[in-house]
C-alpha cells in the first residue's frame, strides 16, 4: 500500500494585544513580541517534531510567515515558503476592526455555543464559514495530489484549520466550529487515495524544557 500524504497544520502564533481586542479576521496584524519570547520552548518542540524533509506552505498573511520564521529560528532548517491565499482566515468584511462587544447587535443568527457567531453568518462584504471551507478544501486536495506520500507543513489560521477538518471529515460548519484550535497547535491530516484521516488535533507537546 502506498504511503499517505501527511499534512501538518499549525495555527499561527498569538497576535498582539491590540489586535486581540477586535475582530481582525483576514486583516494583516503582527504577532505578539512578548508571547514569541515566552513560548520559545514550544517553538523548539515544533522544530523538533515537524518532519524533515517537508514542503512548507503558508497563507499570504504576514502572521503565518512570521510563525514559520520563528520555527526556523528555533532549529528547523529554513525552507522556501509556498503561498496559498485560499488558506487565509475567514474574511469578516465590515466586521473587521470592530470590538468584540460590538458584534452582538450585528448578528442575524444566534451565535455558536463556542464561537462569537454562527457558521451560517455571512458578514456584510465578507464570507461565511461555508465559503471558507469551499476555498480551503481544494487547496488540501491539490497539495495531496502534488505531493503523494510526502509531508507538507501548513502554517495557517484557526478558521482555515477548522475548514480543513470539515473538509476531511465532511462536517457541517456548526460541527467544525466546535473544534478549539489553539495558537501554535499542531493538527495532522493524512490522505490515502480519496480518503482522509484525522491523526491529531492540538497534538500535545513533548515535555518542554
Description of the structure:
The protein has 7 helices and 6 strands; from the N terminus they run E-H-H-H-E-H-E-H-E-H-H-E-E. The protein has 209 residues and is an alpha/beta fold. It has a single domain, classed as Phosphoglycerate mutase-like (Rossmann fold). Helix 5 packs across helix 6. The radius of gyration is 17 Å and the shape is globular. The relative contact order is 0.23.
Give the tags.
single chain; 209 residues; alpha/beta; Rossmann fold; six-stranded mixed β-sheet; 7 helices; 6 strands
What gap, in angstroms, lies between the N and C termini? 38 Å
**Strand segment count:** 6
According to CATH, the homologous superfamily is Phosphoglycerate mutase-like
Instruction: Supply the number of structural domains.
Output: 1
* Major sheet: arrangement of strands: 3-2-4-1-5-6
Looking at the structure, what is the overall shape? globular
The overall pLDDT average reads 96
Q: Report helical residue fraction.
A: 25-40%
Which regions contain 5 or more consecutive residues with pLDDT less than 50?
none
CATH domain class name? Alpha Beta
- Tally of helical segments: 7
- Classify the beta-strand content into a percent band: 15-25%
Output the structural class.
alpha/beta
CATH topology-level name: Rossmann fold
Please give the structural blueprint:
Elements: E1 5-11, H1 17-20, H2 33-38, H3 40-49, E2 55-58, H4 62-73, E3 81-83, H5 129-146, E4 151-156, H6 158-169, H7 173-176, E5 186-192, E6 195-200
Parallel strand pairs: 1-4, 2-3, 2-4
Antiparallel strand pairs: 1-5, 5-6
What's this model, at a glance?
This protein has 209 residues and is α/β, with parallel strands linked by helices. It has 7 helices and 6 strands; from the N terminus they run E-H-H-H-E-H-E-H-E-H-H-E-E. It has one domain (5-200): Phosphoglycerate mutase-like (Rossmann fold), CATH 3.40.50.1240.
Amino acid at each position: 500500500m502506498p504511503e499517505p500524504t501527511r499534512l501538518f497544520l499549525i495555527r499561527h502564533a498569538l497576535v498582539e494585544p491590540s489586535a486581540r481586542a477586535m475582530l481582525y479576521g483576514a486583516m494583516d496584524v503582527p504577532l505578539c513580541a512578548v508571547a514569541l519570547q515566552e513560548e520559545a520552548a514550544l517553538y523548539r518542540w515544533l522544530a523538533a517534531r515537524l518532519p524533515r524533509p517537508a514542503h512548507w506552505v503558508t497563507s499570504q498573511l504576514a502572521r503565518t510567515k512570521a510563525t514559520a520564521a520563528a520555527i526556523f529560528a528555533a532549529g528547523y532548517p529554513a525552507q522556501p515558503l509556498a503561498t496559498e491565499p485560499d488558506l487565509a482566515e475567514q474574511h469578516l468584511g465590515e466586521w473587521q476592526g470592530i470590538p468584540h462587544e460590538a458584534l452582538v447587535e450585528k448578528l442575524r443568527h444566534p451565535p455558536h455555543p463556542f464561537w462569537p457567531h454562527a457558521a451560517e453568518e455571512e458578514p456584510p462584504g465578507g464570507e461565511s464559514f461555508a465559503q471558507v471551507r469551499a476555498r480551503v478544501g481544494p487547496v488540501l486536495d491539490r497539495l495531496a495530489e502534488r505531493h503523494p506520500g510526502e509531508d507538507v507543513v501548513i502554517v495557517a489560521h484557526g478558521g482555515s484549520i477548522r475548514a480543513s477538518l470539515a473538509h476531511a471529515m465532511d462536517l457541517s460548519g456548526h460541527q467544525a466550529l466546535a473544534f478549539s484550535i489553539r495558537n501554535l497547535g499542531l493538527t495532522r491530516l493524512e490522505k490515502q487515495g480519496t480518503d482522509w484521516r484525522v491523526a491529531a488535533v492540538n497534538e500535545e507537546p513533548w515535555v518542554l524544557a
